[in-house]
Known about the structure:
It is built from no helices and 13 strands. It is an all-beta fold and 150 residues long. It has one domain: Domain of unknown function (DUF427) (Metal Binding Protein, Guanine Nucleotide Exchange Factor, Chain A, Beta Complex), CATH 2.170.150.40. β4 and β5 form a beta hairpin.
Amino acid sequence: MWSYPRPPRVERVDQRVTIEFAGSTVVDTTDVVRVLETSHPPVYYLPIAAFVPGSLVDAAGSSFCEFKGAARYLDVVSGGAVASRAAWNYPAPARGFEVLDDRVAVYAGSMDRCTVAAEVVVPQPGGFYGGWVTSWVAGPFKGIPGSMGW
Length: 150
């Protein structure tokens, strides 16, 4: 991932992604894009339409990425369980990132289980970044203690 570019690159991937929360599968799709950025494991973006209806609910707050634009946050809901601000998307992505329109990324650490190509992912360290670590990604990753200035 140290060879990943800055500014980030968006690419389609031919892999199945699943997310389980509160004992239910909230998404299972092969319509996947990921963002690759220096010092970060990949962030996977999935179509909003692929999520179980009602499992994504608008949440308070926003943030801004110098590359992708303004983000909004979403709660992930399953049964009576709510993972607050566990997902985000870019309603009007910046130029070059238009493919992220109508797609959502999810913090793996807020879910029961997330998989890429049947491999269970490990959340990127720290509470801010949303990368997914798999066996084919080598660290260290931004988010570990002492990495804020990288």
